[in-house]
Design a protein that fits this description.
Blueprint: E1 9-12, H1 18-28, H2 35-42, E2 47-53, E3 60-69, E4 72-80, H3 89-103, E5 108-114, H4 118-126, E6 130-142, E7 145-155, H5 159-162
Parallel strand pairs: 4-5
Antiparallel strand pairs: 1-2, 2-3, 3-4, 5-7, 6-7
Length: 163
């Protein structure tokens, strides 16, 4: 049985860490992004890349990439290494992203998730995300199989609430 990690550290990732982000993504997802894709996404205006560690000296075990445009933000990807799941890294990444994106003026945060990803759905709902839409056949599972995605939204605190 896994235990929550006592001191999760979340830090902003830099373009110099693209190789690390790519490696983490490859371990988290069957269909992973290339270093070139990470470089392109991180170079976009409003991009935010985060890494999570189980402690200050632990290796990175989670990542998040988001972007803010105007008063909305979206999580492009979030993942935690399989061996480190259910220990608070995903929650810490999402909370840190929500705080930073709200600080950049976003009033809402969006994420897409496979309808069968019960673990992620539980986490997102526990953080206050609400289902606002559905994208049919959004994820390609290979072999001609596809899966719907739920679009979820989290209202972020406005400037008066952050003061």
């Amino acid at each position: 049985m896994s235990r929550p990690m006592a001191s999760v550290v979340v830090e902003r990732a830099t373009p110099g860490q693209i190789t690390l982000l790519t490696a983490l993504h490859r371990h988290c997802f069957q269909k992973s992004w290339s270093a070139a894709e990470f470089a392109r996404l991180m170079a976009m205006p409003g991009a935010l890349a985060l890494l999570a560690r189980a402690g200050p000296d632990a290796p990175a075990a989670g990542l998040l990439l988001a972007r803010v445009a105007g008063d909305e933000a979206e999580i492009l990807t979030v993942g935690v290494m399989p061996a480190a799941r259910r220990r608070g890294l995903g929650r810490a990444l999402l909370e840190a992203a929500a705080d930073r994106l709200a600080g950049e003026g976003a009033g809402a945060l969006f994420i897409e998730v496979a309808v069968t990803n019960d673990g992620a759905l539980g986490l997102y709902r526990g953080l206050g995300f609400e289902e606002v839409g559905r994208r049919a056949d959004y994820y390609d599972l290979g072999g001609g199989r596809r899966e719907d995605a739920l679009v979820m939204r989290l209202a972020l605190p406005g400037p008066a609430m952050r003061a």
